Amino acid sequence: MSESIKRVVLAYSGGLDTSVILKWLQTRYGCEVVTFTADLGQGEELEPARAKAELMGIKPEHIFIDDLREEFVRDFVFPMMRANARYEGDYLLGTSIARPLISKRLVEIAKQTGADAVAHGATGKGNDQVRFELSCYALNPDIKVIAPWREWDLTSRTALIDFAEKHQIPVPKDKRGESPFSTDANLLHTSSEGKVLEDPWEETPDYVYSRTVNPEDAPDAPEYVTIDFERGDGVALNGQAMSPATLLAALNDLGRKHGIGRLDLVENRFVGMKSRGMYETPGGEIYARAHRGIESITLDRGAAHLKDELMPKYAELIYNGFWFAPEREMLQAAIDHSQEKVSGTVRLKLYKGSVAVVGRKSPHSLYSERHVTFEDDAGAYDQKDAAGFIKLNALRLKLLAKRDR
Amino acid sequence: MSESIKRVVLAYSGGLDTSVILKWLQTRYGCEVVTFTADLGQGEELEPARAKAELMGIKPEHIFIDDLREEFVRDFVFPMMRANARYEGDYLLGTSIARPLISKRLVEIAKQTGADAVAHGATGKGNDQVRFELSCYALNPDIKVIAPWREWDLTSRTALIDFAEKHQIPVPKDKRGESPFSTDANLLHTSSEGKVLEDPWEETPDYVYSRTVNPEDAPDAPEYVTIDFERGDGVALNGQAMSPATLLAALNDLGRKHGIGRLDLVENRFVGMKSRGMYETPGGEIYARAHRGIESITLDRGAAHLKDELMPKYAELIYNGFWFAPEREMLQAAIDHSQEKVSGTVRLKLYKGSVAVVGRKSPHSLYSERHVTFEDDAGAYDQKDAAGFIKLNALRLKLLAKRDR
Amino acid sequence: MSESIKRVVLAYSGGLDTSVILKWLQTRYGCEVVTFTADLGQGEELEPARAKAELMGIKPEHIFIDDLREEFVRDFVFPMMRANARYEGDYLLGTSIARPLISKRLVEIAKQTGADAVAHGATGKGNDQVRFELSCYALNPDIKVIAPWREWDLTSRTALIDFAEKHQIPVPKDKRGESPFSTDANLLHTSSEGKVLEDPWEETPDYVYSRTVNPEDAPDAPEYVTIDFERGDGVALNGQAMSPATLLAALNDLGRKHGIGRLDLVENRFVGMKSRGMYETPGGEIYARAHRGIESITLDRGAAHLKDELMPKYAELIYNGFWFAPEREMLQAAIDHSQEKVSGTVRLKLYKGSVAVVGRKSPHSLYSERHVTFEDDAGAYDQKDAAGFIKLNALRLKLLAKRDR
Amino acid sequence: MSESIKRVVLAYSGGLDTSVILKWLQTRYGCEVVTFTADLGQGEELEPARAKAELMGIKPEHIFIDDLREEFVRDFVFPMMRANARYEGDYLLGTSIARPLISKRLVEIAKQTGADAVAHGATGKGNDQVRFELSCYALNPDIKVIAPWREWDLTSRTALIDFAEKHQIPVPKDKRGESPFSTDANLLHTSSEGKVLEDPWEETPDYVYSRTVNPEDAPDAPEYVTIDFERGDGVALNGQAMSPATLLAALNDLGRKHGIGRLDLVENRFVGMKSRGMYETPGGEIYARAHRGIESITLDRGAAHLKDELMPKYAELIYNGFWFAPEREMLQAAIDHSQEKVSGTVRLKLYKGSVAVVGRKSPHSLYSERHVTFEDDAGAYDQKDAAGFIKLNALRLKLLAKRDR
Lengths: 405, 405, 405, 405
Description:
By secondary structure, the first copy, chain A, is of the alpha/beta class.
């Protein structure tokens, strides 16, 4: 990327790495930098980022700090949850789902500030570079994307710190030693990779977890909660109406307390390697189970099974960074179509790391006690119908058996 | 079914219901009855069934009592577990997977004894009638299948008990009152439906569970175990080699102790209605998680994702009774092809109702610490490759964006 | 079906079979009959049906004759064509797609006339009974459906004709001999089954075809036509704007002339048996190819491939009668979402039975000559990007190969 | 790719481009070159390639000329045809399926000659580079692959010819002018891209076709042929047993004569752009239709529909170069499992560009005239069974309708 850059919008956390990137962009490209810091619920103060950016010479009007929490949950997390998306059977896509929103804002701010490029701090080995860049290109095909980790020669921790010191970037004491875990956090989850986690036979040490108590330290009594859904989205906790982000935050508190949503996974990255990650998705895990619970009584079998068949592909698209691709949108259209009547209440039991659906009710329930009962059903169902049903389902198998015996 | 029947093989448990069926077959069809009682690990004495059958006039050479536990786990449960099959996201198919084996033996015994029909005790509302009959017809297209619950007029509990008393069939005291839960048990699971469970808003009362302790009563300390796999199948527990059925039984003991594998589900039956069931699959739940764990380091992404996409259909086929259908066999061929290198060891933590994979290792591991490390990778991976990878993945999205802006 | 029926709406063609059914309904159920005759473009006079119905005592206000051609093509054929639906690789679903519309009108007329039942003339062996009944039940779960062919004892041609003569129903001379082909016709296609076609080794005799000339008798010179599409639907032929039904009719004329759209197929019925059918879909075949042609330049790969993957299931749903099922509607939502930019012009060559796309253009084309050219592309595409693209796509295969050598 | 190369195996056609590559490899890398020329049925003399290679200093023992026709058809084309694979609905994958075999031989010869690299003549814009390289890496993860078109600076036709002349490489007269079509040929097909074809609105001129007569010049009388299949593969033409390659060659002659297998397509390349190609697959088109014909009477519905659902993904994998990936092998295992009874005879009519199945018969036919007949079926099928079949299929739709009205 030797082309000239006039102005670049940087996804800026205020931390050491993106501060180094900020300075490197100024030095390497001689360009103006616009910083963008998003509040996605990661639980950190954001105002310090403003001060640091100013210190590094960023104009006040070029410092963007946005609270995106409601948009994040409403327009990204909840649509994904409607699909019951889990990558490789388990991962709730907490990092993957945040990248398209950050990219969207990067591109918007670039337009607003007349920038011709955006930059991110993701490395060249991971999925996030792909997610950022596919999203940015899909939203503005002419944007330039700078990925310093793929370009620069600061390939060791020491080189990075030397660069920082040389440029008067403050280096926190705890960053001086060996490289930390690679972590990501937002309202949906916290993830960690690297270091001791790199041996998939070693159990994740407890100190790696930050969002949940150890289940063994969770309360000895279970707690029951209810979540209300309307048209596929959560709207209330224990009967109290809440906005999307408020609801997820409240579920996070519950999940933290009961040690829910820890996941230790070896997964397949889009770039072709396996990695081992630790995820904590306390509120997301509760929400995901509740959503399946309300679907179980409000979705018809045909809709439910189609959703299950489409899910792995949908989750893979989000994981790989194709949120803004037409096939993701097509799948979303199908999924959203199914959620019209997914309304009602789910009751859950939270206890020492586990969450179980224990009750579900809905004004739109398709469950018919009259049909299913072992007692007299007053003619709702004629058992003799089953004979013909089985006969015709068996016909092709009988013809096969006659041929092949 | 007014045709004449000469001899019928009855799936006979020795309990009240199948004893009534036995007598009803003798009475209604005037035919000879052959009884078949299978030990699938349901945990009941089977010899009493012999005595009862003899009492009802069955010839000794027409009484079959088979121990099918090893065949059940080796040829049915394990192949299904290779697919990571879960119906509607959760159900481990404990009842569904037993029916094809029972049907296979019914048809074999019919051939051996010259019987022209088989009979089962499943009702006309459920899935089991379909599973039994599709399997029997697929194995012998000329067999006649008698389903007394769809034919007779014993439609109330009272009528059934009157019939029993009229024919000197002993009625246990606990069967005199209202109808019991409808249950099914084998080495893989125990299920219950009916009665209080018929209201999906009501939590399943603890007395319904019989195979697991309540998580709240489980040990306060977690327990760690290892399972070894070879070519996709479990072969050892804590380093000790075990046959398939022995391994599953040992896992059941562990699961029982730690309250693992309870599931409360509203599911969609093949016959078109929703039902609410309670399942306990203690060892199966542990095994299923372990299998995914070993796959996570030994299966390539392409194989793993294809399996995830095929799984919902595979599970649906088993649930609906199509074990002996060519499409299930085709899927099995694909799945089994993937398991060649699925060998190694998984370490699990069992604690108060939950089971978590905490470590996995394999001589065939595809996990490459050298590739994934955040540290210096000695040239294993060139981060610059990612730029081209992203550019070409983005190309179609850029062309779309250029068109649509 | 021994229940009492007050008033029934009969799908009435005016032919011998449905006239017998009309009389049989009056006789068997003692109920009032409402007749419904639909013009779906089958190319027959419909007013004689009115006269016949009146002769059989139907009240004038209970005789419904509707021209449904535009609705048929606009709301059923075109949406299906957006999916490129072909059952078992070839069949364009001409009969299957008409049944939901007829059912919809039956249910509407039942409501309008206060009828409690509907009746159709489909036999108990075919797919049409399923399609009619699933559609009717999905639209009105309380409706009763009478299927005389499954109920009565007129199981031979002779019995049917005897019944007709006994009740003064005129029997056309050509219906006196052996039973005719079973045929179905509408604006989309004509099908024939039965008789000589029952041996799948025998070539379909030319006299069975009625909608197309034999390709050998078609013009010796090819004819070129253009079809314009807007948002996935055909809107003009050779530049001349046309309504959906008018367009399809004009394409039928072209297809007839050039012998296009003949299909001889052994297919799998939903009821479990194979049947051999002959189909003529002259305009539909041209339209279907044109639609794929316009999609080839306007759909992104991701959308196109997802459509191809979903298509077999979508086609199966329509074939099996599940037009009004939620999973068909979900798939339709996904498909329709993709058609936003499927606009432009396709040029086709028609010649002696074949139709080929020879040109396509669109204001929304995604085809970029600049990118694809073998000549100098002025930097649109950097060939070096391909190296990284391939390297990362290869990574998992390399890791596999290293493990398995 | 600045690493040192000792010896490289080049896929060498003997034409101008690969001769230039040969010389460039010697010059650029100072390495020894091994040439590999494959006879895949492209219809060219191969011995001239030997003479040219010798002229350019290749040692006789380093010149490999292999007749791979039987292996190509038996182990690549036929397995793919078992899947009824067509990319994007139409393309029979003639180029895609040859690349893995060439790659396999490149890697084998590299091993045999102690070469550390292979080289191919595919450009950086197309699919073939991906197919070659993914296959080579999957077969030998340590092999180096050199793709001169992505490396050198011979980016114009003139530069290429200058290089040739400077190095005494003979330049045929017809190669001096503008660049020719990009073509590929083997026993399965011939493809052309580029030049006039780059405008997708322009009809492909007749002179582009080389393997088939224009349908308008084909015989005025149709020709009927039969193909016999055994276990999914063609084994005889018109009753005469033939090897795989012999059969395909004979079908090519028939297809050429009748103008069969021309295809004009805009397709989506793996590298992200659309391209327009012209394909001639005369024998392959006949074979593909015949294979579906024999499957139509020998495959059960479950197997047939599963194959149809899996096909798009299978075709995409081959198109994208993943022949040697585990997921392709898994799908192949499923497909091959289905072909056990796919034996019998198909009769086809060839006429002026079209090929139609007109008859099929098999000792393993599942078609049952007795079941399907409109005449008396002697009790093979009880029409009343259909009532129960429909009722239970309708049940979930009725419950939906009751809820939603």
